[in-house]
Description:
This protein is mainly β. 15% of the residues lie in helices and 38% in strands. The chain has one domain: Brix domain (Rossmann fold, 3-Layer(aba) Sandwich), CATH 3.40.50.10480. The longest helix has 11 residues, at 97-107.
Amino acid sequence: MSFVEELVLMFPNAEFRRRGTWSLKQITAACNKHGFTNLIVLTERAKKPQSIWMVKLPYGPTARFKLTSLVLPKRIAGHGRPTGHRPELILNNFNTRLGHRLGRMLACLFPYDPQFHGRQVVTMHNQRDFVFFRHHRYVFEQSEETSEVSARLQELGPRFTLKLKSLQLGTFDTQHGEYEWKHKPELDTSRRRFHV
């Protein structure tokens, strides 16, 4: 199963459409017309996913991420299959002003009413400006001998890492778009300064 198919399974009410020759502005206008709330566009190089564009509809913002460390479920030992339940969401360490904005944008990909009986959880953890994405199922087990309750995790996948490259106000616009934040590697002289 491909990365796109895994994302469609994970995000509730998601639809997949091939981009073809459409520009991102045309796709955004069509999604607005049909009442979509989020748009995700994957770009690839040599048949491997390279970056993700996320557009919050109808008014923005637009975020561009570099996609790295992708591991599909079939390569995860002991992986499970996701069910159709809406997952719980854990956002961890999005502490700065930019982090709060990015966390809210990522949280909008999932409905606010998780189905707890599905026992699925999506975790997005920010560390050193990298967002680590994980999808698990949890099970509570009670020991018959000591009657202690413990939790066990089963990874559902996919597993990947995102690095924010830019955050643009409004929907995608290359000519007149105003950037709220843009990664500038030439200015990163300190390894201790983080933005998200």
